[in-house]
Predict the structure.
Amino acid sequence: MRQESYGLPAYKISTGAGELKGKLSLWGWVIASLILAILLWEAIVLVGKYPTYILPTPMEVWQRFLQSLADGTWWTHTRITLLESILGFALGFGVAAVFGYILAHWRAVERLLSPHIAASQALPVVAIAPLITLWFGYGLLGKVIVCALVVFFPILVNTIVGIRNVPRDLIEVAQVYGAGWWQTFWMVELPLSLPVLLGGIRLGLTLSITGAVVGEFVGADVGLGVLLNISKGMFDTPLMFVALITLALMAAAFYGIALLLEKILLAWHYE
């Protein structure tokens, strides 16, 4: 006899319970891993008897974080890196998505530009960043452009692959029924290319932080990259750990936002 609850089939309830249990189990593993890592870190410091300037304890890092939070140092540098990453990603995504769409549809343009794009990617961003800083200055614009360069290539590649994976038959059917360019793009190409495109967005968001820090290393007076340089010069290793952990948490947050966006936009894909 099939069980029902509030008019819902039993298999629906059991599926939802299974998903909830899986999520709780995943979070349990994450929390347990963090606790284990902190305990291992503490044990290494105690056994090795390392001085603070070599390897601080988790408590020393936490106290340094509270101090930098209280005096405004942490937020002053974090908000700039966050702003650079978001603006750099937006610029890189916009340019790469447009170029990717063009290259996906016009192979002659791709054959003309692909060698130059590939050659540009062979140059390390660290080597290009000083030149960008020289051209655009030490302000926000230079860091945003460095971020955009880091983000550009993965978004470009995923856009090309995503658009070209759309079945040609579906595009032709839409055109037969009178769909124009915009309708074909919005109703056919974009939805079907989203799974691949969102993979590029996920990677690009996390790489944007790397671009911001590289730009700050080359030349800046504020940002987490600058904070790393300052703390290194002062042998303030706990502050270095604060900056590094902040960068890691920012990357994890960006990745989580991308996953959430993917789940929302691709709800139809997982049904």
Remarks:
- The chain has a mean pLDDT of 83.
- The radius of gyration is 24 Å.
- The beta strands are 4-5, 8-9.
